[in-house]
Design goal:
The chain is an alpha+beta fold and about 180 residues long. It contains six helices and four strands. The chain folds into two domains: about 5-70, no CATH class; about 85-175, no CATH class. Bound molecules: zinc ion.
Length: about 180
């Protein structure tokens, strides 16, 4: 079942498919809307970034009662910031910025602590990222720590041009969260 969508229209169209199969119980035709997912970024109004569907077990439905999330691909699940901020962070790291500086500049936050958390998430995502790839070249990043060498050499190949769009496209293609 698809979880990431390029635009809200395709997400909505998918959610209204009357014969959607539940990934938990494989039942068909029991999904009901369970409300929109909003995300608030800085001072802007919260924006709709997704939709919850419930595999209903009430009112004549025979589903399992669990919910699934459909998300816009610019949203990184479990991360407050989206693909735009993450893309800037990665682009800065690839161009040689220190982790703390890259994080502050990308997120606008005062503390850079989260930058290291993001790197930990990246490190744990490496097996996922590297699975569909064949070549790695970590030579260009030899001046960084070993973990950063692995992360940056992988990201440099994975996200060749526009980082933000490439992260969204990656989530759509693989249908899993980026990190
Ligand atoms: Zn179900």
């Amino acid at each position: 079942m698809a979880h990431f969508f390029q635009c809200f229209e395709s997400l909505q169209a998918f959610s209204f498919n009357p014969v959607l199969e539940c990934p938990h119980c494989a039942a068909c035709s029991h999904f009901v809307s369970h409300g929109f997912i909003y995300k608030k970024q800085s001072r802007a109004q919260p924006k709709i970034v997704g939709k919850r569907l419930c595999c209903s077990n009430r009112f004549g439905h025979a589903g399992c009662g669990r919910t699934v999330q459909l998300l816009l691909s610019c949203v990184i699940p479990k991360l407050r910031y989206g693909a735009v901020t993450l893309g800037v962070f990665i682009a800065l790291l690839l161009s040689g910025s220190a982790v703390a500086q890259a994080y502050r500049q990308a997120s606008g936050a005062c503390s850079a602590r989260n930058g290291w958390r993001w790197l930990r998430r990246f490190y744990h995502s490496l097996p996922n990222w590297r699975l569909p790839m064949q070549r790695f070249n970590s030579v260009a990043f030899q001046h960084r720590s070993h973990a950063l060498q692995l992360i940056l050499s992988t990201l440099a190949i994975m996200l060749p041009a526009d980082k933000n769009l490439a992260i969204s496209a990656w989530q759509c293609l693989h249908q899993v969260g980026f990190c």
